[in-house]
Amino acid sequence: MLKQMTLFALLSAVLTAHAGLEAMSPQELKDTVGQGGADLSWTLSLNHLYATDMTKNSISILDANGKPTSVFYSLDPTVCGTEKQLCRLAIAPNNHVDALGNKRWLVFKGIQGTLQIDQFSIDAVTVGNSHNEAQTAMQVTFYDNKPLKIRNLGFSTVGVETGTGTGANEGYANTSTYSTYTAKTIQDDGTITDIVTNVPTFDRNTEKGFLGLNMHGNLHMSGNLKIFSYNCTGGVNIRC
Question: Where is the signal peptide (predicted)?
Fold first, then answer.
């Protein structure tokens, strides 16, 4: 009996709540206005300690003066693998091949980076459309004191690689590094001798390529971005 009474009470509560709902006409929905918004933060981190260690709640630890004492936007030493192949972006434009039919790859090596913005806002504003009528737009607001933080964003080098097959034999998987080079010297008697020499410390054991890029700094933005359809008439059956 108790279970039946409880079930009856629950059904009555549901029916009572449902009875308070009223359908709105398209015109009423159109005339309905509101107010509100959201303050958001955003972080994108790739191959850095912050991206691989979920215990990190911030990209850095700051002291009382706002200076970083520990940073987590450095490359995770284990994430790229022993051959450093897991931090790459390889592109084969138009499936270009060399004279032997082997595919050529443009390979960006050692990709890393962290981007973070501590605060930006999204809300709604009223703008005038092409018919000089009021129309709602989404507004994204950026603040000068909340810059976009750019931390160690870039790649170590880029190279053109060629492979002879698929998988481990494809160009994007090449793991050649700078270690030694061969220098030719001419002896007094005119003979040419090859001398194997270590690459200078700066480039030694780094991946082969011809260009590197690394960005670190703050991008300050102040203002707002309004997003709307300028030619929208706001009609009932029109999606804006």
Answer: 1-19
